[in-house]
Amino acid sequence: MFAFTRQIQLATDFAKGTTARLAGAEVPSYADDEASFAGLRQRIAKTVSFVQTFKPADIDRSEGRDITLTAGGRELRFKGQPYLLHFALPNFYFHAATAYDLLRACGLGIGKLDFIGQI
User: Fold this and answer.
1) Domain total of the chain
2) Domain limits at 70?
């Protein structure tokens, strides 16, 4: 299993990469050099800011867009909707949940509502 830092890096990579690919935009590259919680928080904030630059219209009608990326040394090809539903979102949630679980395993007093938010 990847360490906590890598889980956060991958979750943010999926957030920014998915949004950019569905909008037909360039995916920003991050250095993956965070060495502290402060650095990880900055990365998350930078990712949120990037994602917020897009409007719904930028992604509307992307369900048929051709998406090609390299993962694990191989080229993957998708249409927009299967990419989002069957690859990008499951991977984002996997890495976010794994980071959350690592924090809990280390004794941080967080619960389910800290993950899913207040209802």
Assistant:
1) 1
2) 4-116
Q: Any idea of the CA torsion for 104, 108, 113, 114, to the nearest 10 degrees?
A: -110
Cβ atoms of residues 34 and 45 within 8 Å: no
Q: In the prediction, which pLDDT does 86 show?
A: 98
Output the CA torsion sign for 21, 31, 103, 114.
Answer: negative
Tell me if 47 sits within 8 A of 65, measured CB to CB: no
The model carries a pTM of 0.93
Q: What is the pLDDT of residues 41-71, one digit of tens each?
A: 999 999 999 999 999 999 999 999 999 999 8
Greatest pairwise CA separation for the chain in angstroms: 44
Q: What is the DSSP secondary structure assignment for residue 33, as one 8-state letter?
A: -
Residues 75-108: pLDDT tens digits? 999 999 999 999 999 999 999 999 999 999 999 9
**C-alpha to C-alpha distance for 61 and 81, rounded to whole angstroms:** 9
CATH number for the domain including 100? 1.20.120.450
